């Protein structure tokens, strides 16, 4: 009822100016800047709350959140087509940021809220719809690129700022600042963001029933097998993004507690790899796709991902993590190239369907990957029982081990397993046809916005 009331009120003139891409950019920047500040405090609280099975619990928490996001994203998207974008921007940002103040008040409630907030943590889906409302097809690709760059910029800068504030003033101040930024984001949506969905469209669809097919998260997955080329691409995406999602959920905790990176070192690591990823996805991606083609660029990105995951799996020294991070930045070219390959392989009138399949598979991996990584860490007894939380350290150098311990033959078992799955993905990708014909591919690539409309820049930058 609350959402319905907000949606009705949004019919009146609200916000500042006409709806634009810049409204969406500010919303995304503030939300992820607030969460980026918490990188250091969150690792500390996670280890203090679950000292026995830290990786397992982290995987389960992130896994539940990812699965709930996968299940709810189609429904929220369908409802935003009826009730408007602004109301759902408010709801998704509010529930996504709701756990932030609980970090220092009650860690158990904090992690419980993180898991449950997955049902509403789909801000990007609503943002992309907002951008689609306010741009035409020629501008949409550039607009999505701007949203993607904003997301990357927020994650490049905020962990370093959070680590600095935590080192000098304590975690409580960091949580307070993040909470205030989240409140500022909510106030910005209430006061400054105008509704982007035209009144005529909302009036035509108001009260229209939401079909189960629109809200079914598995609807797109059931269509995968209808085209052999799309099937091969979807298998490639699943096998390559499953370890990527798991790595994203646990890697900073792994650097902190197993490799013994300090809080500031992690922040610097995130910034460096993030900047390299942005360079890889702009300069190198364009050059590679022009010279090698879409399929060979995908294969090159998968090759970098195999090397990166194997390096993380066998690496036990800090310099190895930095070297593998540079390789990880190059592996971020995979998913933009996959999107272009999907666009090339599908008919012009089926672009949205096939991009929806890819998005659905990646959403499923966001739930399965973290849980899989946490379970493998648990199976191989990679625990943190003998290590104390690292508090208030502002040394760029990694912290030495407190006492000599036996190093496992494979320090990071999940990363090695991930490398094996990406090898299989590489072999599957070899059988993807390059193009159907020159004329058909050129005609299919001519409307780039059709393929970008359902594309998620967030997932390009997940390596950040």
UniProtKB/TrEMBL annotation:
Keywords: Acetylation, Glycoprotein, Membrane, Transmembrane, Transmembrane helix, Transport. Coiled coil: none annotated. Its main location: membrane. The chain crosses the membrane at residues 21-43, 55-76, 83-102, 108-131, 143-167, 173-193, 230-254, 266-289, 296-314, 320-342, 363-380, 415-432. Residues 438-464 are annotated as: Disordered. InterPro entries: MFS, MFS_dom, MFS_trans_sf, Sugar_transporter_CS, Tet-R_TetA/multi-R_MdtG-like. GO terms for molecular function: transmembrane transporter activity. GO terms for cellular component: membrane. Residues 20-437 form the Major facilitator superfamily (MFS) profile domain. It is a multi-pass membrane protein. It is found in: Membrane. Belongs to the major facilitator superfamily. This is Hippocampus abundant transcript 1 protein. It comes from Salarias fasciatus. The gene is LOC115383494.
